[in-house]
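Translate structure to sequence.
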């Protein structure tokens, strides 16, 4: 395992740890309802903004370690990393009761910043299942191809369920998002440390 792979794996696991701990301790934040991106709002919003950036940059670094032998896989992981950086640059709009004092509704219209955040998020949430599919079809060890195939299917289903729940403001929307992130980011960490020469 190279330094580049280590950076990528630590960035993925660090992302999960930071948004989990910050969400549990953030006043007014409801983990089961509010998305991870909402943590970039409010007085402590800098924590999640920095988390987006560290994870995105770490993913790009990790992808560089994959590039020599797995060009397409590295490209997809790198795009996910860049989209995470963009997610930190453009924040979502306050809504649905967060930050505290925000109306408990969905706005009728969204700012341009929010729209760009949504576009970056779409790249992230489509990119991880896509990268896992590329890994499943690639020249990797058998167990890693099967794990990647399961991740591609599992994360795609979880993202779809999250998106549907988010549109309805359904209870548990935030939980579905976190399950998708957990499955995808653990796979990314395993990928970085398991690919020879990464």
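Result:
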């Amino acid at each position: 395992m190279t330094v580049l792979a280590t950076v990528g794996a630590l960035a993925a696991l660090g992302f999960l740890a930071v948004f989990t701990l910050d969400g549990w301790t953030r006043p007014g934040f409801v983990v089961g309802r509010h998305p991870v991106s909402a943590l970039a709002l409010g007085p402590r919003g800098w924590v999640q903004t920095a988390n987006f950036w560290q994870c995105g940059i770490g993913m790009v670094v990790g992808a560089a370690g994959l590039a020599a032998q797995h060009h397409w896989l590295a490209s997809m992981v790198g795009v996910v990393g860049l989209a995470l950086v963009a997610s930190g640059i453009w924040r979502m709009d306050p809504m649905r009761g967060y930050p505290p004092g925000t109306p408990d509704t969905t706005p009728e219209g969204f700012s341009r910043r929010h729209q760009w955040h949504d576009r970056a998020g779409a790249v992230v949430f489509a990119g991880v299942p896509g990268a896992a599919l590329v890994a499943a079809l690639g020249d990797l060890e058998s167990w890693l191809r099967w794990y990647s195939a399961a991740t591609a299917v599992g994360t795609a289903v979880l993202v779809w369920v999250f998106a549907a729940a988010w549109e309805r403001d359904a209870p548990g929307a935030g939980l579905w998002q976190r399950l998708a992130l957990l499955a995808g980011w653990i796979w990314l960490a395993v990928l970085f440390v398991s690919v020879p020469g990464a």
